[in-house]
Every structure is written in C-alpha cells, then in structure tokens.
Specification:
about 325 residues; alpha/beta; inorganic pyrophosphatase (n-terminal core); five-stranded parallel beta sheet; globular
Length: about 325
Amino acid sequence: MIITHKQADLDAVASSIALKHFLVSIEGLSKNDITVVYPEGISKEVEESFKKCGIYHLFDYVNDVDEKLLRESSLIILDTASETQLPEKFISIINNKGEALLIDHHYSNTLKKIVNNYYWDTEAASLSEIVAELYSEEDLHIDISTALVLGILADTGRFSRGSHRTFSVMGKLTKFNNYETVKKCLPVSREDRSIRIARLKALQRMAIEIYEEAIIVATYVSSFESEIADFLIRIGSDASIVISPKNNEFRVMLKFRDELKEELKERILRTVEKILASRSAGHRDFAVIVVKRKIGKNEAQKIISEIRRELHLQGP
Ligand SMILES: [Mn+2]
C-alpha cells in the first residue's frame, strides 16, 4: 500500500503513480496488488493538470482504507513530513505495527522516528525526482514521464528550487514528452480575483518588525497562505509569517529569504514554535506549523503581537 500526505499535491500524486508502476513492473506484481491511498483526496491543482495533460486515466486510488487492510499491508509512505499530515488512524496503525517504509525529501521530518525504515533525501528538490531516478530510459513512457515532470515543476516552484539533479532527471524525462506542452498543463499563475483579494488583505493586516538585520512581516489570510508568504518576500520581507485559520485547526506558514542568516532563520522559527507550543515541518526555506485548534481573527492578531513581543524580549 502506498500512502501520501493528506490532500495529495502534484509531487505526491506523480511520485506515487510512478512508484506503483515501477514496483509492478520489476516485482512482476499485478496492479491490484498495490493500493494507492490519498487520504482526504487530491488537491484541485492535480485534477486540473492531469486533465489538461491527458493523463487522467493514470488516477487509480482510494481516499480512505479499511483498518484491517491497513494493518495487514506493507506500507510505503511518500512525501509526508509530519504526523499532522496523515489522519490519526494511519498514525496509530503505523505506531502499533512499527513497520513502514517512509520515502521523503522534506528538510525536516518528524515521521522518521515512528517508522522502522526510511529513505530521507533532503538533497532532492521533489520526490518525483527521486522516483524518476529509479527508472531506466527503457522503462519510461510518455504518461509516467508527463506525471513526473508535473510533480517536479510543482515542487521545485518551476525550477527555482531545482538543482543539477533536477535537470539531469528532466533531461531523461523530457525525451518522452513535449516539455512545452506539459508545462502548460500547470494551472496558470493564480492571478484571479481571490488571490488578489488575499494579497491585499494580507497587506492590510500586516505587522512589520525589524529584528536585527531581518525584516519580519506577519499577517493572516483565510487561504493562499503559501503564495502570500512568497509574495511578501518578493516585495521586501526577509521572513514572512502567515497565519491561516482552517476548519478545526490553523496553519502558520513561515518563509525565509534565501540570503537571511541560517542562525537568524532558526531563531525566528524557534520563537514561533515556542509561542504556538508546536513543532514545525518543512523544507530548508519554509516551515509550516499546524495547530489543532480553531482560532478567529482576533486571536490571529494576538499571536502576531506575541511573536513581536517575544522577539523583542529575546533581544539581539
Ligand atoms: Mn514533495
């Protein structure tokens, strides 16, 4: 059984499909021997891009799975960095079984400690890259390579986080598809009304804090938290802290400008973790903290003030 994080994104979906295909072909298994589980389904972006690229038929998954089957299966967990990214049922079964293989590329990963086996490769900019490396050219074909290119494009921020390795894998993959066509399958830059409103609201609610040489900006929005954090960096912040209330939880997205001193990034991150009494998960230049309780707008403002106060107390 292959399981990804909740609301699977392009990287998670592409790597799970390609890994299943790979395992079926080398192990001489049938397609029915491997179940792919995307807990709580897939993100809208995935559906759109797969449709546009004509690879919708690759979807073969369930949103949930019977506990008994879960307990009896060999588990491979993909692209998942923390316990909060999986439903509790999955975590408790993994905890009881103790047997699962985790394959991930996130800079920090707290799930490693509850599995008995992991391949954790933070040098890879996407998980699709890691799975693509398993394939030899003879085994690749157009559909799988198209999915993997989509996964790589999405997770590397269209190559802004790409490495030598990304391009070497891309060279192999793009022999099987037309890159110019594939890249058009990604949702167009989300310049629609809702993101523009989110940006403007984020600016209206924003607090600016100068802390040593860092310009820290904190705000809250109901959605697009990741895009908003990037946007704030583009327009000048060194560290963006974006709070976003969800159904029964809230998320705090932190993103840092590349050039910011590692030590300062670390200090800002630890301060936010301390205030929220929660640990973060994420890549080198971004972290996300999920807190399992509801909050309203007022409380979001309060958290922002607390972060400012705490940084001041710590001093340089
Ligand atoms: Mn990923």
